[in-house]
Every structure is written in structure tokens, then in C-alpha cells.
């Protein structure tokens, strides 16, 4: 008896000591194969910058479908990992639809904040129902709030793929939100004007989105003719230039200013249309219009970086749709139809920019040839294997919808549509006569990057009643594409000094239960889960009763 008491006392003391030590020494062990609970160093760095409480509201509490329960669990575990690095990070679980009487009002309020719900079809015991779930988190710090989407949809993805996609982007999504809340000095982006580029309202959603990260200004190259040095000096005050669908040729002087901006370290995104063709022209022309080459006087600039944009149209059997009206007046019907000149481009997930993004919509895209030189070139987006090129000039007509395409002709696919160029930039005017006399020009510059996209409309949002819609949303077919995410990722990659965006390359695998097996073996496992404990309890009771009788009868 004495030995038993001593053993019990030692055990109690050991537990107490361990609990005391645990208050001062805290550690976590990640035993998962893909180390999904081990935060990357850039994410840790940004999380440790908070010196006051950060409250995160996760809108996934309450009665939610099983797949979202898994997403909730993964979100909580990730935030616990962040909290282990900074005790100021705390989270709450919130059921936004807890008050059933105010449910509709709450839904409208959340949608007004830009929190779109997911409509989930739930099948249970042979009954099918639709439920609204808000897979969002709200990160609150001081007087600021940042919305974090928890659900990552991709066209054609299964439930398992959707959860995997969502979990893969969680760390980046929260680290990105923490970055926005910690920004004190923003980098600057110049929107280039003066050569017939898109209007601000046509890029409004992109510009509004990146305003959380960067300062935005406009630089008009028209002024180069009068004061080129002033324009270059102003441009050098920006970290990145966006050139969105110019329609007028650049002068040699304007080209030299842009050349020096890039050689001296300025990043750039070029969204180019080498063919003049618009859907509005086809509608206005009674169903047809001529596609013509567009001369922008930039061939030699791109050639110096190993890039050539061909004046052709990409014709792709992986297409997006247009909507045409048939009938008149109240009898009108709007029918979505395939449009082979609007490729639907799926990412190969081989770079932080294009990893885990929705399909991107191109409109009258051209192809990009890659030329041999010292620059590294990465193709971020390609047309499908079932695509081809149509030369110009040519007539583009809606009549192509009346006859099925000859698939045998679509044998020249995988055409480059977006290319990232990296290396130590050299001036295209090196060892040549300069068109301008500028101060402090360079022939060879530091390591730099530029992105060339062969479709100016990739950045263009649609309008409704003169107001911009979300970039990537097509109001005619009610479809969403990944244009905005691709461009925002591109911008962040070009201007990211911390390597934060590289988190997007992480791969995790979340094993889910097989729904078909669950249905087929549901009764079996219910009997096992209910019956086995009951049987074990009865056996233990009989054995314990027998033991007591034998012990006390002796």
C-alpha cells in the first residue's frame, strides 16, 4: 500500500512539474508528411510585426457541410501556428446566420461588404438541400479590416480538389492580409498614358485591388516631346509601370524613355494587342469586321529582350462564350455561344504567379515567340493543345458559329500568351545612336523583370451603367475567370522583396472520406460504433462482477 501511495505521489508531482514547465517552454511538432503546419519564414516574419492584438473572425461556425468543417479545422490549425509565433494573433469562430429571423438581412449586409456566399448542395439520407455558407475570415487590427477568402474555387474541380486548393492558399491568404495591415511605406506603380491605352474606368477593379498594397500614379508620355528628362525623372520615382493596351505607335523618344526606365531597375507589365480587332466592331459591322495588324513601333524593344509578339489571332477549341440575341422585342432570347477567338487558358501551376488560379480569359490574343538570348524567359500562360493561329488581315465573322470547326487543323497548340523575362537588362540603344540626349543614361543595368502579355483586354473590366464590375467577371454569361488573380499575383511577384508570394508554391494533400463508401458501408460502421462499446461494457461488467464475487467470497 505504501509503495502504491509513493508511486501515485511521484506521478502527481511529475504532472505538476510538466505543467509548470509547459507555461515557460512551448513547442509544437509537425508530423505531417507535407509539413503543412510549419509556416514559411516570410509568413513568420510578417506575423511577428504585430505589437497589438489582431482579432480574426472566422465565419465558419454553426451547422456547416462536412467539407467546410474540414476547411474550418485547417484554418484554425493554421491560425494556431501563427499564434504560436505571435501571441497577439487571436481568432473567433462566428456563425453569421445564427439568428434565423435576421438571416436574410445578414446575408444582404455581408454581400454588401463583398463577402459572397457559397451555395452548397447537401445530400443526406436521400434528401437534397441547398445551404449558404460564407467561407471568409475578417482580420481586424487597430482601425483596419481585411477580408480573407477561405474557399478557392476552380472550374471543374471536385470537392476534394476544392478543399486541397483552399488549404494550399490559406497560408498565403492570411500572410497577405497581415502584409496589408503592416504596410507603412508603399511602393509605387505608374499607369502609362498617351498612346491610346485603356481608360482608368476600364482598369478600375485592378487598380482598386492593388491600391491596398501600392501607391498609383499616371505618367503621360505625350510630354516626352517637350521635356523628356522631366518625364524620365518622374517615371524613375515609380517601381513598376503598367502599359495597358496601347493603340497608338510609340515615338523613338518615348521608347527610349521606357527603355531607360527598365534598364535602371523599373519593373514593367506590358499588355499588348498586336492585332486591331474588337467584338464591338463585329456587332457594329452587322456580324463581321476586318482584323488588321497594329503597328506600335515596339518590335525592336521587345526583340532586344528575346520577345516577339506575332500579329496573328489565336483560335482555340478551349474557348469562353459570347452571348447573342435572337428574336425581337419581348421575344428576344439570349444564347451563350462558343467563340474560338476568346481562349480559356488553364494554368500549368508551375510558378508562384500562376499556381492555383482559375482559368484566365483572353480576347483576340496574339502569340509570343521566344528568341534565343541571355535573358531567362518563363511562359506563364499558354493556349490549349487544341489551338491554332489565324493570320491577318482577315475577316472575322459570326458565321463561324454556323459550322463546326475542323479539329484536324488545331494541331499547333500550346502557344505562349504570357511570358516573364528576367535577367540583367541592357539598353536596346547600347552601341547605337540615342534618339534623345538624357542625363545619367545606362547601357547595362541591374537584374530586373518584365512581364509581356499578348492581350490588352486581360486587364479590362466590364461596365454596368457606367460603373466598373469585378475584373474577370463576364456579365453576359455570369461567369468568373482568373484574370484579376493572375494580374495581382504578377504585380506582387514583380514587387515582392520578401518572397512572400513563393508561399503559393506549397503543395498539401488533404485526404477526404470517400462519399460512396460512406453511403455503402454506413449501416455496418454504425453497428460497429454503437455495438462494440456496448458489448465491451457488458463483458467488462460481467468480468468485474465475477471478480468481486470471487474476491469477497474468499
TrEMBL record:
Cite the ABC-type uncharacterised transport system domain residue spans from the record.
186-490
Question: What are the protein's UniProt keywords?
Answer: Membrane, Transmembrane, Transmembrane helix
Domain of life, per UniProt, equals Bacteria
Q: Name the InterPro entries for this protein.
A: ABC_transp_unknown (IPR019196), DUF7088 (IPR055396), Motility-assoc_ABC-rel_GldG (IPR019863)
Q: Where is the DUF7088 domain?
A: 33-139
One Pfam annotation, family name? ABC_transp_aux
Annotated membrane-spanning segments are 527-547
Q: What is this protein called?
A: Gliding-associated putative ABC transporter substrate-binding component GldG
